[in-house]
Design brief:
The chain is of the alpha/beta class. It has eleven helices and ten strands. It folds into two domains: 1-112, 3-Layer(aba) Sandwich (Rossmann fold); 144-273, HUPs (Rossmann fold), CATH 3.40.50. It has a ten-stranded mixed beta sheet with strand order 3-2-1-4-5-10-9-6-7-8, sandwiched between helices. Residues 1-143, 202-271 form the UspA domain.
């Protein structure tokens, strides 16, 4: 069973994530769960109390959940989703958004994000960053303000040490028209044997049964900068990369390149562990 989970707050970027998930579902015969998480108590309760009518608290909260479900039902009945198996789910929670989301078992999470920078990144980061860090399945984060998202050119960031994730990604990105560009970032932190890297890339391509692909070694001040610069240079539609999924003190001191890319990229990013 292939299940795609799409969290939404009905923002424009989250609805674009649903459109991308719909395309992937068609190519993979997958079902979609469109999920909206309502954290209790919600600011939405103010809608009921602002009407000046005495409404019991439980009744008001039920109204919030019912209204949210109606909105999701309206979204999934759009003719463009005809023929797809999409289930609208509204879940109430007293926890944070990420914890509730990750309780749902999925084979792929597709979500929209506007990213996070500066103080927000330092003290909390984006929802997408947290999901990428903790998810046990691939996460596709939709970014930017494109009117239409089409995955035709994919930048695969590789260190030639963790390559199994690429095969997992290909199971979802099974579109014959996709052009793959593999990039190894040289940040001058260690001596690089360029010829050995090219031979390693040939072995990876053979393992993945790739006939047409591109491979570049990119100079960058750091890994994140190199990935983002090379993605813009080739006009990539998607960045594909491995994540260690570090948590706790390990994450605080070492961080995650994938999470940084998710926060700062204006290009969609797919991460796998």
């Amino acid at each position: 069973m292939k299940k795609i989970l799409v969290p939404t707050d009905l923002s424009e970027i989250s609805l674009k994530a649903l459109d991308v998930a719909a395309d992937l579902a068609r190519h993979n015969g997958a079902e979609i769960t469109l999920l909206q998480v309502k954290i209790f108590p919600s600011a939405s309760l103010g809608t009921y109390y602002s009407m000046g009518v005495a409404v019991p608290f439980d009744t008001a909260w039920k109204g919030v959940l019912d209204d949210a479900k109606k909105e999701l039902d309206t979204v999934i009945t759009n003719p463009k989703f005809l023929g797809l198996n999409i289930k609208a789910v509204v879940e109430e929670s007293v926890e944070n958004f990420e914890s509730t989301l990750l309780k749902h078992k999925a084979d792929l999470i597709v979500m929209g994000s506007t990213g996070a920078t500066g103080i927000k990144e330092m003290f909390g980061g984006s929802h997408a960053e947290s999901v990428v860090r903790h998810a046990n399945c691939p996460v596709l984060v939709i970014k930017g303000n494109q009117q239409e998202y089409r995955i035709q050119k994919v930048l695969v960031a590789t260190d030639m040490e963790n390559t199994d994730f690429i095969k997992k990604a290909f199971k979802w990105l099974n579109m014959p028209e996709i052009e793959y560009h593999f990039v190894y970032v040289d940040n001058a932190m260690r001596q690089i044997n360029y010829e050995a890297l090219k031979e390693d890339m040939k072995k990876v391509a053979t393992k993945l049964k790739l006939k047409n692909y591109h491979f570049d070694i990119w100079d960058g001040a750091n890994i994140e900068e190199g990935i983002l610069d090379s993605a813009h240079q080739i006009k990539a539609d998607l960045i594909l990369m491995y994540t260690h999924g570090r948590t706790g003190l390990t994450h605080w001191f070492k961080g995650s390149i994938a999470e940084d890319v998710v926060n700062h990229s204006d290009i969609p990013v797919m991460t796998l562990s």
